[in-house]
Each structure stands twice: as structure tokens, then as C-alpha cells.
Amino acid sequence: MKRLPLIVASSLLAVASVSVLSQQSPPLPMIQKRGAAQQFIVDGKPFLMLAGELHNSSASSSQYMETVWPRLKALNLNTVVSTVSWELMEPQEGHFDFTLVDDQITSARKESMHLVLIWFGSWKNTSSEYVPIWVKQDKQRFLWAAQHQPPTPEHPKRGLYALSPFSKNAQDADARAFRALMRHIREVDPQHTVLMMQVENEMGILTEGRDDSPPAQAAWNGQVPDALMQYLGAHKATLLPEVATVWAQNGNRMNGTWAEVFGTDRYAEEIFSAWYFGRYVDAVARAGEEELVLPMYVNAWLVQNDRQVPGDYPSGGPVSRVMDIWHAAAPSLSLLAPDIYISDFSGTCSSYVRQGNPLFFPESRPIPGNYVWAIGHYKALGVSPFGVDDLMQDDPIADLYDDLGRLAPVLLDAEQRNAVAAIPPQSTGETSVSLGGFEIRAKYVSTHVSNVVPAAGQVQAPAVAPDVIATNGVLGAGQSGYALVIAAAPDEFYILGRGVILSFDRPANETNDWILYDMEEGTFHDGKWIAGRHLNGDEGPSLRRFSLPDNQLVFRRVKLYRHPGPGSVG
Q: What is the pLDDT of residue 51?
């Protein structure tokens, strides 16, 4: 009984300490299902990443970055996708230098921005150029990938400057370094300036379907791991068609060698490679998560056209056709992300939201209409152009990010209610979306073309897929019509867009008539609508339709008035 006051006092002290700690450290960032949408949750609230990825070498010099940070702020970014290089962080084995990491965190915090950090570890664009010199020089300890296919005119022999995913020593060294990085971030960043981690970069085997090092060949000749077969068996009814087809062509066997279960062509080799790259990455990610649980993802160098087979693009990388294999191999990852430079932007997004995979693309062309489409139609967690440090402060992305930043609280709330739709970026023709009880039709009025592929001969084709296609024709695009539409209340909509004529049609079961009776221009501040001019007359709606200018991005709030009597308004 005499000890009770001491126990109570100790308990109160512990509760007080936890309370103080919780006040100092906001909750960890996470991806969470809220209502009808998966959303990025930061400081306990939904967050839309208006991001941009730096060039690969920018963050290797804090002095260089001193002039970059204010320009990123002027572009209205709230998140910077930047890099951490293994070779610079661990120049000698076991000796870590976190100076560049600390400088990035400090600078981002100063500019009130967040970070997504890319771990340039074992692979960057399929090669191992960012591993430390002590890894590169020790060929006995660290296994490098080998080729096995004979050369053909279509696939000439090239050296593979890449660590093998079967190198256990490389995996362990990479995981130890990544663990040290995540431990350091936990210690120096209690504010969670760092939101998410990309583990490796565009991994896979280029020019080959698979690695042919001795351990890889032994694995190929051995049995398919039970863990993969159990996953495929448990998910057989929901497998994506690309993997399901390869498996079915060989009889849906539940055991056997890789060749017996999946065949011997490049697509079978891609599944083999995806499993072992995924297992390697999962081991690295899990080591980091044991220190700090942040969302983690991998990015993909995409298939460039339907003539390519695995090896023409990195075989084993997280392209959408093998998402099932990556989900089985790397369950610690929160999402798989495409790097989108191909012209089929919408098709790429569509392929990556299958099976509930959240959409985020860390690299893309800076085309505003594509970003509005990704956010409004696919509920993207965030959008990001590559080489953002090259963009001028008057780039259209700056205005778009300013408007989206103002709209974000309303947009993210509407996402949860499934009350958001988008008009895709186009230059001509018509389209429609259903929202809020109306069929909203859009007629494009812009004379510019967005997201076009340069004509043959206009741009010299690179030997491999580029990080960015920087032509004036592409980077000057984005002037087509597009819009983001939010159902704010019954018969009331917020619209952000340009270059379209919007009209509201009666649903088939509607017996009332209506007119657009009120339209305002304005903006948002802290999620609240700030009205500007009340638009009427020449600037206002015409009964059921209105125009958004094709020379600027604008906000509008429109209200519709319903009344009995179909056809009473001409």
C-alpha cells in the first residue's frame, strides 16, 4: 500500500512523457483507405503530393542546391523527390556520411516542403553505377549478372553492368546501408519531412530475359518457390491476365521447375526475374522498416511499345504486367509506380491502378492536363515531373500546383465521397462524365495539341528509354482542354479547367428541367471558396452550358436550378 503513490506517480509521469512525445512527433505518414479513395495521410490528414523529381546528380552537392530550393518553392511544389546515393553515403564500408541527407531535410523543412527520397542502391536504370567503389572492386564477394542468350540482329550482345539479384552479399550490404539511412532519418526527422522512400530505381535485366550467373542458372533449373506457387494458387481468380495467361499456357501447374510451370520464352524469364528482384528489394525495404515505418515503393521503366519483349525493357522490373509477381515477392512495398514518358498516359495509369495499387508516378513529362486527369480520374496520390530543377518559374506547372494546392482540402474530401470527375486532356471532339446526377458533356475548344509523340525524324531515337524526352513540342504542350469537376452539394459544382465548353444534360430518369442560374469566378483559401466576380451576361452561362477560356486555367463555381415541367426552358 505504501508503494501505491509511487506507482501512481510513475504512471502519471509515463503518461505525461508519452503525451509530450506525441505532441512533438506527428503520426507517421501512411497510405490509407478513406471512403471511396486510397489517400496519402500526413500529420493525420489527407495530403496531395504536388511533387517534382530532381535530376539524378542535383542533390549530390548542397552548394548546387542552394539556388535550386527557392526555385522549387516558386513552382509551388509541396514535395521534392530527391536522391540518396549509396556510394556517397557509405564511401567506406561501415562508415556512413549523412551530410547530404541532413542538408536536404533541413532545406526542405526551411521551405515548408516534404521529401520523397530515392535510394540509389544496388540498381539505377538497371545498372549498378551508384554502388560504392568497395562493392565494384570486389568481384569475388559481390556477384554480378551474366548474359545467357546468344546475340541476334535484334538483340546484340552487350555487357551487363549490374549486380545479380542472386548476390546475397550485395543484398545484405545494401540492406545494412538502407537500415542505417532509415535509422538516421528516424533520429533527425521527427517532424516527418521525409514522407516516403523509393527503394532502388528502375531495376531489371536489360537485353536479356534473366540473369545467367551460376546461382541464377541453378535457381532456374530448380523448383519454383512454394511461396510464389501458394500466392498464385490463392489469387488464381483475380490474377492479372498477363501472368494468368503465361501460367495457363503451361497447365496451371502447382509445382515444377520454372520452365515446367511458366515455359522457356522471354515472358517466363520475366516472371523468374521479377520474383528474384522483388525478393531482393523486399529484404532491403524490410531492413529499413525495422528502423522507421514509412511507405515504400519501386518504380518501373515501362514497355515502350507492343513490339518489345522482356529485355528490350528491363526484364523483372515492376512493369504492370508482372504486378502479381511483385505483390507476392515484395509485400513490404506500399505501391508500384510507373515512370511515364510514353504517349499513352491514360493507358499507363489505368494499368497501374489494377488490383487496388495506389497511383503515384515520380517521373513524367510536365503536362498539366495529364496531371489533372490522373488526380481527378485515377485519384492519384500525387504527380511529379522529372528534372523539375530545369523548369522555369513561369512554367504552367507552377500555376497548376498553386491552384491544386488551394483546392486540395476540398478535392480530397470529395474523393472520399466519390464526388470527383475529370475531363481528359484533348484538343478536339467531345466527351462526357457522370457526376452529381448529371451527364456533364465537354466540347474542346483549344487549338493546341497535348501529349503528342514527336514525328519521325524530329527527335533522334535514343539507344535506350530516356529519363526524359525534352523537346519543345512535348514540354510546350498541355494547352489542350481539360477540367476537374467536384460535386460540392446537390446541384452545385466546383470546376478547375480550361479550353472546354461544358453542358449539363438531364439523366434519363429526370422529370424536371433546370438552368445554370449562378456562376462565380474565384479561388480557394484554406479549403474555403473565395468568390470573385458574379458572372452573367456575356461572361456568364447560357442556360445549360458555359465556356472555360483556352488561354488560362480558371476556377468556377456553378449552381443549377431545377423546376417542374420538362421542356419549359428552351
A: 98
Rounded Cα distance, 375 and 367, in Å = 13
Sequence-separated (6 or more) residues with CB below 8 Å from residue 261: 224, 229, 247, 250, 253, 255
User: Any idea what DSSP says for residue 28?
Assistant: P
**Counting Cβ atoms within 10 Å, is residue 398 exposed (0-12), middle (13-18) or buried (19+)?**
middle
Among 73, 89, 171, 79, smallest CA distance to 122 is for: 171
> Is the dihedral angle over the CA atoms 125, 67, 115, 130 positive or is it negative?
positive
Close Cβ partners of 568 (under 8 Å, ≥ 6 residues apart): 513
Residue in the block written with cell 527527335: 459
Give the separation between CA 490 and CA 505, rounded to whole angstroms. Answer: 15
Phi, psi of 521 (to 5 degrees): -90, 165
Give me the count of residues in the chain. Answer: 570
Output the average pLDDT for the chain.
89
Output Rg (C-alpha) for the chain, integer angstroms. 26
Q: Model confidence over 261-303: pLDDT tens digits? A: 999 999 999 999 999 999 999 999 999 999 999 999 999 999 9
CA 298 to each of CA 119, 169, 492, 530, 552: distance values in angstroms, whole numbers, following the listed order: 10, 21, 40, 40, 35
Question: CB–CB of 105/99 below 8 Å?
Answer: no
Residues 22 and 106: their CA atoms lie apart, in Å, by: 22
Q: What is the identity of the amino acid at 17? A: S
Determine the Cα angle at 413 with ends 411 and 415, to 5°.
70
Q: What is the pLDDT of residue 508?
A: 62
How many helices and strands in the chain, by DSSP H and E? 17, 21
CA distance 72 to 389: 7
Q: pLDDT under 70 in the chain at which residues?
A: 1-24, 149-159, 446-479, 507-512, 564-570
DSSP string, 399-448: HHHHHHHHHHHHHHHHHHTT-EEEEEEESSSEEEEEETTEEEEEEE---S
Element (H, E) at 521: strand 513-525
Cell numbers at 387, concatenated: 528534372
* Cα 51 to Cα 77, 79, 424, 442, distances in angstroms: 5, 5, 21, 28
Compute CA 536 distance to the chain's CA centroid, rounded to the nearest angstrom: 41
3 state SS of 55: coil
Digit-coded pLDDT (tens) for 17-27: 434 444 567 89
Determine whether 531 is exposed, middle or buried from the number of CB atoms within 10 Å of its CB (0-12, 13-18, 19+). Answer: exposed
Percent residues over pLDDT 90 in the chain: 79
Range 256-259 contact pairs with CB under 8 angstroms and sequence separation of 24 or more: 256/223, 256/224, 257/220, 257/221, 257/222, 257/223, 257/224, 258/219, 258/220, 258/221, 258/222, 258/224, 259/220
Distances in whole angstroms, Cα of residue 184 to Cα of each of 108, 116, 197, 209, 282? 17, 15, 14, 37, 20
Grid cell for residue 496 = 478547375
